[in-house]
Amino acid sequence: MTVKNREIEIRTVNVTRYIMPLREGGSLPALAEADDGFKYVVKFRGAGHGTKALIAELIGGEVARALKLRLPEIVFLNLDEAFGRSEGDEEIQDLLQGSRGLNLGLHFLSGALPFDPVVTRVDAKLASQVVWMDALLTNVDRTAKNTNMLMWHKELWLIDHGASLFFHHSWVNWRKHALSPFTQIKEHALLAEASELEEADRICKEILTDEKLREIVELIPDDWLHWRDKEETPQDIRDIYFQFLTERIHHSEIFVKEAEDARKTLICIVPKVEREEFINVGVILFSKQANFIKMRYAINENRLRVFSPELDIDDFREHMEAFSKVCSGHKTGGTIAALDIPERFRWLTAMRSSCIQTSRPHVGFSVDLEETLDKLFNELVL
Question: How many helices (H) and strands (E) does the chain have?
Fold first, then answer.
C-alpha cells in the first residue's frame, strides 16, 4: 500500500521481525525488518509521547525532503496484533503491544557514521538551510551533544525530528508559539557554520509554499489524530498544524534574526543609549570548557566621529583598553581582572547603561577558538 498526495508518496509495509532496541531517545526506537525485505528504525506510537512524536517525525522529515536535504525514506509501518507476544523483555513486549496498528519507520542506513563536527565541516549553504529548517520546526534536538545527523557515503543525512513542533504537547496558544523566536537555536550543532541564513530564508520560503505545506500535513493518518484530551476532529488538528507552519514561514524574519543574533557576541558603542543606535567595535569569545576568554577590538576614529561628533575619542580609547585588561586578567586591570574567567565574562557582558555595551551572550560551537574569534571580528567589526 502506498499513500499518495500529489508529489509525495509514502509506502506502508508490515513489520515481520523485531531485531533490537535502540536505547537512545525518549521515543524508544528499535531496529526491525519489514515484509519488503528492508530494515527500518521504528518509532512506536506506544512510546512516551505517543502519536505526536510520529507526527513531528513525519512533518519534519517531509519538510526536509521538500528542501532537498538528505533524509532516509519514511514509511508507515503496520504492527500486527500478534507481533511481539514472544518477546522476552517485558518492557519491549508492553511497548509492542501498545503500538498495534500504524507506526512510522525510517530506512536504516547500514554502515552510517555519527556526524562529528570536529571531523566533518559542513558548507555554509547546507548548514544555513538545516538551521533555518530546525528553527521553523522548533526542533530542540540537533545539538552538539546529540546531533541527530549521520555521515553515509560521505554525505550528511538528517534523522530524528520527533522533538520538533513541541507546541503540540500543550496545544494551547499555538499562535503565540508560531511567532516565537525559538531561543533554543543557540544550541544548534551547525549554527557556527550557518553564515548564509538570509539566503537560506529566501530559498526555503520559495519551496515551502502554502500548497506544499498543505500536502505535507494531509499525510498525517486519521489514526494518529484521535486525541482523547482534545475535541477537534482529525481535520481540525491538521488545519492547526498547517496554520502553525504557515504563520512561522510568513514571519520567518523573527526566527532568522534570533539565529543570526545567536551566532555572535558583540561589543558595541552606544553613544545615545536611549536611541538604541550602535556601532560594533569588538568581539569577546569565551569557553568555560577550554578556560578561554579573549577580546579583539578596533577603533575607527573617522567612523566614530561621523556617528557621534560629541564623543571623546581619547576617553573612549582608555575605556576600551580598561575593558580589554579586565578580559585578559591583566594585573593592572583592577579587582575585576583578578576574578576567574567565568566571573570576568559575566561582568563584561552584564547589562549596563554606559556607551560601551555588549550584546547578550550567545552560544555556538568552535573547533578552533582563535580562528573563530578572528572570523567573527573580521565579519562583524572590520
Answer: 13, 13
SS3 155: strand
Distance in angstroms (rounded) separating the CA atoms of residues 237 and 245: 13
Nearest to 137 by CA among 238, 32, 59, 230: 59
Mean pLDDT of the chain: 86
Q: Is the pLDDT of residue 321 over 80?
A: yes
* Integer Cα distance of 346 and 328 in angstroms: 14
Task: Give the dihedral sign, CA 339/342/348/350.
Answer: negative
pLDDT at site 353 = 43
Q: Could you tell me if 238 and 217 are in contact, meaning their C-beta atoms sit under 8 angstroms apart? A: yes
pLDDT in tens, 255-288: 999 999 888 655 665 665 434 567 889 999 999 8
What pTM did the predictor assign? 0.69
For the chain, how big is the Rg over CA atoms in Å? 25
The CA distance from 256 to 241, in Å, is 20
> Is-contact 264 281, C-beta < 8 A?
no
- d(CA 243, CA 214) in angstroms, rounded, equals 9
The answer to whether 35 and 112 are in contact (CB under 8 A) is: no
Strand partners, 17: 33
> What are the residue ranges spanned by the domains of the chain?
2-261, 265-380
Grid cell locating 82: 500478534
* Of 57, 112, 103, residue with least CA distance to 80: 103
pLDDT tens for 127-145 read 999 999 999 999 999 987 7
Q: Is the dihedral of CA 37, 43, 45, 51 positive or negative?
A: negative
Q: Give dist(CA 373, CA 290) in Å, integer.
A: 14
CA distances from 117 to 38, 122, 129, 340, 364 (A): 30, 8, 16, 29, 12
- Give the CA distances from residue 47 to residues 33, 122, 219, 275, 329, in Å, rounded to whole numbers and listed in that order: 19, 33, 21, 52, 51
